[in-house]
Write a structure and sequence with these properties.
This protein is mostly helical. The protein folds into 2 domains: 1-186, Growth Hormone, Chain: A (Up-down Bundle); 205-399, Growth Hormone, Chain: A. The protein has helices at residues 3-22, 28-34, 43-72, 74-94, 98-111, 114-125, 131-160, 162-182, 210-241, 247-276, 278-296, 302-316, 319-329, 336-364, 370-390. The longest helix has 32 residues, at 210-241. It is globular.
């Protein structure tokens, strides 16, 4: 299969995956109260449980699925994830109690792993000189789906009821399953298709490779930054908006600005990284995003805050494509599934711990301190990458 055709198909796949997920997850608290009968006093607890259990299970399962992908085929694991996630969305639409929804979310964590398989497949199809562009397009599409999803979910919920969103999401993932089954082919085998040793067959072996271990940690902390802010960002926007009319609409628009900017900028960061070094693009993106985040808590009005939100989206979009490219370049082809499974697990840990840290900071220091906290983490990561990989001029691998 031509790499351009593979990129086009996988891009559609990622859009369906991301939009389906984000048109459901932001509305879980409303779903619990309106459809499953949870009272207002306990809805936050149930929402926290249903949100976090998927992260925990998928963090455990992702490396296992990645290892199986390297042995049995990445396309097969993408088919598995697409089909099982489609089933989980369908089940989410028919549950009648919060306990049943928690079980469905547990199953969804078990089924997860489509995004790392998409990454593994495209890194094997993409020519070396086009790797940054391909990963940038994929990351931009993932972000775009995060913008489209909540809007689509809100429209569907208003017009047809919230359960319809689950059924539409299930259909979208089933279409992905059909695409992997009948159209997308298994990536070409590496030129050196030497079977992995007994040590390499264990996905935790990758943790002992210094550059991969470092990138896993960087990815975990970068993901944590996103989720430190996400649970309270809409509330903070409402606080800045004051008594203006259509405050919910204003909050939604400002919230989506970062996603829109990221969808546009991610491919450009990928091209920049391919030309100047992925370490340089990663460091620059984290420095700019960290600086803007540190300053974002200062404005007391909505407009400058919104401008900064757009700027942060432009800058932060360069982190993950660069990081994914570094990992792809330093991983043998026969271990792509394992390494991206490990990366996904690391990001799930960041997604689980971020809200906990954000809640602690907001509770004891106030919401204003969330922004410098998040910014300081990114700036620290940028300093680490610069000192270890740019100052020392670590060369890119030749294969």
């Amino acid at each position: 299969m031509n790499w351009k055709a593979a990129l086009a198909l996988l891009t559609c796949n990622v859009l369906f995956m991301s939009a389906s997920y984000t048109m459901l997850i932001p509305f879980l608290p409303m779903y619990l109260t309106l459809e499953l009968g949870v009272d207002e006093a306990s809805v936050n607890l149930w929402a926290g449980i249903t949100f976090s259990v998927t992260f925990l299970v998928s963090a455990v399962m992702a490396p296992i699925w990645g290892r199986i992908a390297d042995r049995k085929g990445k396309r097969l694991m993408a088919m598995r994830a697409s089909f099982l996630i489609a089933v989980s969305y369908f089940l989410g639409g028919i549950v009648q109690t919060p306990e049943q929804l928690v079980l469905v979310r547990l199953f969804q964590g078990f089924a997860a792993g489509l995004w790392p398989m998409d990454l593994a497949i495209i890194t094997l199809y993409a020519p070396r000189e086009r790797l940054g562009l391909c990963l940038g397009i994929m990351q931009g599409t993932l972000t775009a789906g995060g913008v489209v999803g909540p809007l689509l979910g809100g429209v569907l919920a208003e017009a047809f009821g919230m359960r319809t969103s689950f059924y539409i999401g299930s259909l979208a993932l089933f279409i992905n399953f059909l695409a992997f089954t009948f159209i997308i082919k298994e990536p070409p085998a590496p030129a050196d298709n030497t079977p992995a040793s007994a040590e390499e067959a264990n996905p935790w072996h990758l943790w002992h490779i210094p550059i991969l271990r470092a990138m896993m940690i960087v990815s975990t902390l970068a993901q944590m930054v996103i989720f430190i802010l996400q649970p309270v960002l809409t509330t903070y926007i409402k606080y800045l908006a004051g008594n203006i009319r259509n405050v919910v609409l204003a909050a939604g628009v400002v919230f989506s600005l970062g996603g829109i900017a990221g969808a546009v900028a991610a491919p450009l960061w990928g091209i920049f990284g391919a030309r100047r070094s992925y370490f340089v693009s990663m460091c620059l993106a984290m420095t700019l995003a960290g600086t803007l985040l540190t300053l974002q808590g200062i404005p007391e009005t909505l407009v400058p805050f919104a401008v900064m939100q757009f700027g942060i989206g432009l800058c932060a979009a360069g982190v993950q494509p660069s990081l994914n490219a570094v990992i792809a370049q330093h991983t043998p082809a026969h271990l792509k599934g394992s390494v991206f499974g490990m990366l996904f697990a690391a990001q799930q840990v960041g997604g689980f711990t971020g809200p906990l840290l954000g809640g602690i900071v907001a509770t004891y220091l106030g919401m204003h301190f969330l922004f410098p906290t998040a910014g300081a983490i990114l700036l620290t990561l940028a300093a680490f990458v610069w000192r270890r990989y740019i100052k020392r001029k670590v060369p890119a691998p030749s294969t």
